[in-house]
Amino acid sequence: MSSEISNLARNDMNKSLSTYPTERIAKWRQNPERLAWVILLSSFAVFVVLAITIPFSIRYFMRYATVSQEARLEPTLGTMHLYSGPGADAVAVNSVDDGVGEGSRIVAAEESTQGSLAFIGDVPNSVLGSVQLYTGAELEVLRLRRPLFASSPEPYYARLRLDKGQARIFSNSEEIDTRPLRVDLETPHGVIALDAGSYQVSVNDDQTDITVRSGRAVLSHSDKGQITINAEQSAWMRAADFSHEPQPAARSLLRNGDFSEPEFDAWQTDIIAKDVIPGFVKVNEGDGRWVAMFFRDGEDNVPTEVGITQIVEKDVNVYDHLSIQLDVKLLHQSLPGAGYLSTEFPLRVEITYTDIYGKVLTWGHGFYYRDPENANWQIIDGEKIPPFLWYTYQSPNLIELLANNGTRPARINSVKIYASGWNYQSMVSEVYLVAK
Predict the structure, then answer these.
(1) What's the CA dihedral at 207, 155, 388, 430 to 10 degrees?
(2) Parallel/antiparallel/unpaired status of strands 198-203 and 156-170
(3) Quick one: 286 exposed, middle or buried, by C-beta within 10 A (0-12, 13-18, 19+)?
(4) For residues 208 and 239, is the Cβ–Cβ distance under 8 A?
(5) Spatial contact of 343 and 420, defined as CB atoms under 8 Å apart
(6) Which of 370, 332, 386 is nearest to 113 (CA)?
């Protein structure tokens, strides 16, 4: 009896086990080798991606990471007004200020105001380029950057906005620093990208005008596209249109007036030094531009002279306007004033011309910074300018000026730039004799 009961119980248990649902086995347990390959290949793919992206990310960061830079504001004449940021009050600047950074705005509002904004490189005391500002100019520094790492091949970068007024931009930096300077200039009418070179820009409510003296500029209009402007060409932009073809710039009668050509053949060197150490003149790059430097350091109280002359031999009868423009920087003069004859300036420009009556005459203008110590030494045909700063001089219309004196020029024979006195050091750049 007991055996029957146990058999019945066993049969019932087997029947219940046979009806219990079979447990499902996970796929990864069914084929663990496949899972291992998936994990192995995925890990390898992640490794490859990281091995490529991490070095490239580091390389990209080291190449393109930038840090903000500060520029130097150098007032030459009058007072410049500096706004350090949006909403900031104006600060009158009449001496060198090294703290001009991004977001700053500079206003040259007073009459006869001049000044420059210099872009400083990594090389000590080096100026990569500059913006020369004149009366009425308003300039904003939008971005001013340099690469964070010295190994980066990227250029220094300046993005500026000229809302109105006149400015001249220099960005010749190849000989000063291994890293070039890239400048983008915004105006109310478009954007101008500037290569290394020399540029003149004028902005008013209606129009932007640009003249390329050396280098190349790309003018981009928001609606009309862009054009490329090369050396000795000019173009304009308005809100609704721009010049689709660059035009020839106002003609300069001088060759190599910016001293950028490797040969100095256009200019002849003249040295006067009798039985004393002579001065010399050389061309090099300084302050972001090509300059001719006049230098003498020898015995004092002895007269010397060193200069450069270009033979022009051009008729100017057909022109109504003739003016000479040059940038001057005085660094040293040991002879006060311009000597007792007012002819020994640390820098002077002279134009020799033939008037309409056939008479050969000379017109000149000199620059100095030390006042005469003798009250009888009067300065004639010269002006006092601040030392150590670039000063732009533009003559009056010489056709009109000399015609009023009864000596209207018919032919320009030569242009001479020279330094004279005892010991001196001076520089000249961007010399143009413009006829139109």
Answers:
(1) -50
(2) antiparallel
(3) middle
(4) no
(5) yes
(6) 386
Output the pLDDT for position 134.
92
Is residue 172 a contact partner of residue 151, using CB atoms and an 8 Å limit? Answer: no
Q: Taking the CA atoms of 28, 29, 33 and 39 in sequence, report the sign of the dihedral they define.
A: positive
Structure tokens at 121: 């490189």
Contact (Cβ atoms closer than 8 angstroms) between residue 108 and residue 115: yes
Please state, in angstroms and as integers, the Cα–Cα distance from residue 212 to each residue in 199, 366, 429, following that order. 5, 27, 15
Structure-token pair, residue 393? 């001089």
Instruction: Report d(CA 365, CA 326) in Å as an integer.
Output: 11
Instruction: List the domains of the chain with CATH numbers.
Output: 67-249 (2.60.120.1440), 268-435 (2.60.120)
The DSSP symbol for 287 reads: T
Q: Do 374 and 276 form a contact (C-beta atoms < 8 A)?
A: no
| Residues 273 and 304: beta-carbon distance below 8 Å | yes
Residues 100 and 70: their CA atoms lie apart, in Å, by 5
As a 3-state breakdown, the chain gives helix, strand, coil percent values, each rounded to 5, of 15, 45, 40
- Summarize pLDDT for 314-332 with one digit per residue, the tens: 999 888 899 999 999 999 9
Cβ pair 399, 319 in contact under 8 A: yes
Dihedral sign from CA coordinates of 155, 132, 189, 244:
negative
Indicate the Cα dihedral angle 293, 296, 301, 304, nearest 10°: -70
Q: What is the CA radius of gyration of the chain?
A: 36
Residue 171's CB: how many other CB atoms inside 10 A? 26
Amino acid (1-letter code) at residue 338: A
How does pLDDT run across 4-29, given as a tens digit for each residue? 555 555 555 555 545 445 556 666 66
Using CA atoms, how far residue 436 sits from 162, 180, 314, 397, in Å, is 27, 35, 13, 10
The first and second tokens of residue 7, run together, are 């058999």
Residue 72 pLDDT level (bands cut at 50, 70, 90): very high
Backbone phi, psi, residue 411, to 5°: -150, 135
How far apart (Å, rounded) are the C-alpha atoms in residues 143 and 322? 38
Tell me the pLDDT tens digit for each residue of 116-168.
999 988 776 778 889 999 989 999 999 999 999 888 888 899 999 999 999 99
Q: What is the mean pLDDT of the chain?
A: 88
356/403 Cα distance (integer angstroms)? 9
